[in-house]
Amino acid sequence: MAILQVKNIKKRFGKTEVLKGIDFQLEKGEVLSIIGSSGSGKTTLLRCLNFLEFAEEGTISVDGEVIFDGKARKSLKDAEIRKNRLHFGLVFQNFNLFPQYNVLRNVTLAPNMLKIDTPENIEKHARELIERVGLTDRIEHYPCQLSGGQKQRVAIARALAMNPDILCFDEPTSALDPELTGEVLNVIKSLKSSDSTMIVVTHEIEFARDVADKIIFMDEGVIAEEGTPEQVIGNPKNPRTQAFLSRFNQTFA
Prior knowledge:
- The chain is an alpha/beta fold.
- 36% of the residues lie in helices and 25% in strands.
- It contains 9 helices and 10 strands.
- It has helices at residues 42-49, 78-85, 103-114, 119-132, 148-160, 178-192, 205-211, 229-234, 239-245, and strands spanning 4-13, 16-26, 31-35, 57-62, 65-69, 88-91, 166-170, 198-201, 214-219, 222-227.
- A hairpin with a 2-residue loop joins strand 1 and strand 2 (16-26).
- Helix 3 (103-114) crosses helix 4 and helix 4 crosses helix 5 (148-160).
- The two termini are 32 Å apart.
């Protein structure tokens, strides 16, 4: 059974239909990369999965349980929304760290507030995650003392601290200088070896090709093409996918 099933997700803002019926599924341990031009609906899709936006139609299921149904969205209680969000961890483009807290406090804050474990176990787990992303020597530093790449690695550790079923990344390197991009992408690559299930919205086409198990190309609110990296990037069939990939001065085998 798929860990995530998304069926017929539709979302509009005013008269603008941003998502026009999105369907896909993801198996445990798989990495899905979503590519496409700005405005194609990629970020809106992630925000719907994380209950930061609410689709008008469609369903979202995790481990076979429907956690969102567009027809019943208005009846969702705040407590249900908070509970359903725990299935997903979201790493934002711009880090969204708390500037008044150091690295360790940023990572432990949400688990402590939600009391998902004892404070001692939460701190132990946080220290392990901070070591995993290579920031043990920055554990007492504040965000203003960190580079952009370091901030994003803290954000990844913070998302992992909640033990989500599915870890989502929204253009995780878009706010970084090119020389800092590699350190963040390497951390994401390392997560793949630990059987983490991930959805990565990215403009890093080579990264998507190398790390993803499957790729979705979105265009104007629909999935224009879906398949393995070899299929979508190496041998795209849809003219819109071909046109999009032609913008990148890379050779895809």
